[in-house]
Design goal:
alpha+beta, five-stranded mixed beta sheet, Aminopeptidase, GNAT family N-acetyltransferase, 170 residues, Acyl_CoA_acyltransferase, 5 strands, globular
Length: 170
């Protein structure tokens, strides 16, 4: 039986380790789909180091926003929920389930927990963001199967190390 509890620093190492395991199949596929200069700019020391640093920062800087799914006493997933009162919106900022425990309803339980936090705070909606690449397809399916509606967004990048664009030479 999975239960969801408030984060404590005792979970720090386990949550970072399970997060890296969860994203292990995602990032190699992402690297194949985005321009090399974009991937290399975001992950100059590799995706593992960037993810570790970014997620450690979340755990360290906003522990009150983090909740942990436990199987017995073992962490098997976690969620970071942020509130944006100016938009009457909650945000699932981080959602991770250990690969060994995926497809057992843990992600759904964490999403519902986050929605409950947002609802209790008077928010009107909750959002989650993920990649549009093949590696993130399972995440998109999970969000859509849990009632999230897609908002189309396009994000473009240009390598500034390449030759100057024609408009820059005017």
């Amino acid at each position: 039986m999975t239960r969801i509890v408030a984060y404590t620093p005792d979970f720090h190492a386990a949550l970072l380790a399970l997060s890296l395991r969860a994203w292990e199949p995602v990032f190699p596929r992402l690297a194949a789909e985005v321009p090399e200069f974009v991937y290399d700019t975001f992950y100059p020391q590799g995706w593992r180091q960037r993810q570790y640093n970014d997620l450690a920062e979340v755990l360290d800087s906003e522990p009150d926003n983090v909740h942990v799914a436990l199987d017995g006493d073992r962490p098997v997933g976690w969620v970071c929920t942020r509130l944006h009162p100016e938009d009457r919106m909650g945000e699932i900022y981080v959602l991770v389930v250990d690969p060994v425990h995926q497809r057992r309803g843990i992600g759904k339980a964490l999403m519902e927990h986050a929605a409950g936090i947002a609802r209790a705070a008077g928010m009107r909606m909750i959002m989650v963001e993920t990649g549009d690449d093949v590696g993130h397809a399972p995440a998109r399916r999970a969000y859509e199967s849990n009632g999230f509606k897609r908002w189309p967004v396009a994000r473009y990048f240009r390598d500034l190390r390449e030759d100057a664009s024609p408009s820059a030479t005017l």
